[in-house]
Amino acid sequence: MSTSIAILAAGLGTRMRSKRAKVLHRAGGLALVEHVVAAAREIAAAERIVVVTGHQSADVEALLRPTGVSFVRQDPPLGTGHALACCREKLETSSGMLMVLYGDTPLLSAATLQRLFETQERAGAAATLITTALDDPSGYGRVIADQHGNVEAIVEHKDCNAQQREVRTINSGIYCFRAELLWRHLSEVKPNPLSGEFYLTDMAAILRGHGHGVRALHINDPAELLGINTRVELAEADRILRQRKTNELMLAGVTIERPETVTVDPGVTAGMDTVIEPGVRLLGNTKIGEDCRIGAGAVIESSVLEDGVVIGPYTVITNSRLDAGANAGPFSRMRPGAHAGPNSHIGNFVELKNTYLGAGSKSQHLAYLGDSKIGAGVNIGAGTITCNYDGQKKHPTTIGDGAFVGSNSTLVAPLEIGAESYIGAGSVVTENVPPGALAVGRGRQANKPGWVEKRKKKSPATTD
Ligand code: UD1
Ligand code: CA
User: Which ligand gives the minimal distance to the CA of 57?
Assistant: First the structure.
């Protein structure tokens, strides 16, 4: 398709009441403008897509650069008509159609853009714009059209007279222009008398004035056309986008309990017969296998869970990996580089960082395991701490297969604990332990028979 697309994303978005440019605010796990660019890229090559940036242009451009689109700066932003005028140099030579989208309509689908393009081609009009009817059209530009769908003008909400304000058909801000006619007449847009801004919407009346047809493509379901101006609308868009994602997972065979409470980023995948309990957040590029269970309130970011993994409630996992059949939680923490081997168990209040816990090994309660390599079939007792940091450097701990680390052991790294060895409970271990050895590093217990009686005789207890 020989279509170019301009995406207007230079405005601050005053109604957001934010220091951050509106199009950078996130809904459904992506910045608003990322959604629009994704839809645009489905119908046009990246070389044909230009994004107009202004407020925080460097941030917007850095975010979008990997998509291959190009940029035009609008500085200062003087309205949507002015934003498009800034693209003249870059886009004037391209013939055919020019689509214009706004960076604050994140629910827009590529299928709708395709329909817009086809409608415009078929009608042979100078421009086609997408309209819909809203129960509450306040804030939107009203589309003045005859009963055949010929658009006379678009009137911004603030400029409407009482009668125009009653019109419920609104401009979605999604247009397809015949490029050559647009560039010929765009300079005729004059500043709005109320705001001083150049309104792209004036083009409808301008093209009509030159005897050209302007058409409306009316869409019955307005959900897709939601323009985000406030944080209330942002939350609504987020809700819709999150629902789309959880629906997609459920239709692919994942059970989600109370899906309205679950947050799943677009890059997340999950396998068949996995169950996701209420309040879970699955973020980044997390990959979850089949037959897993993700407990209530778990937060899992950019991690891999193989088949049959069970995560207890309120477990937090970041940049980590759990092999098939591993368990973590409730209340476990896996920090970057944690790796639970097949069928291993990580229990409550156990924290792993940059640590491999071998196949079938268990650390069930109250432990910190950092910079460690732990073999298969190891038991880590409650309260075990790897002292991996000496105040200056981090040091590694290795624990061989089948070792038994007694409760409340303090393992001072660097340290090697041999296979099949035993560490007595409460030990402070500062030296390597050979395979098969028992290591006890604690003060020996001394019992003093009759001590209590003797003390009582020496100084009788006082009561008051
Ligand atoms: C605009 C339309 C309105 C339509 C509504 C649909 C105009 C004048 N009005 O109103 O008819 O019903 O969208 O959502 O176009 N932008 C720039 N440069 C600027 C100003 C804005 O790039 O100088 C960008 C913004 O970043 C934003 C988009 O254009 O992504 C729309 O701007 P916004 O101020 O939100 O327009 P609305 O008042 O919503
Ligand atoms: Ca808007």
Answer: 1
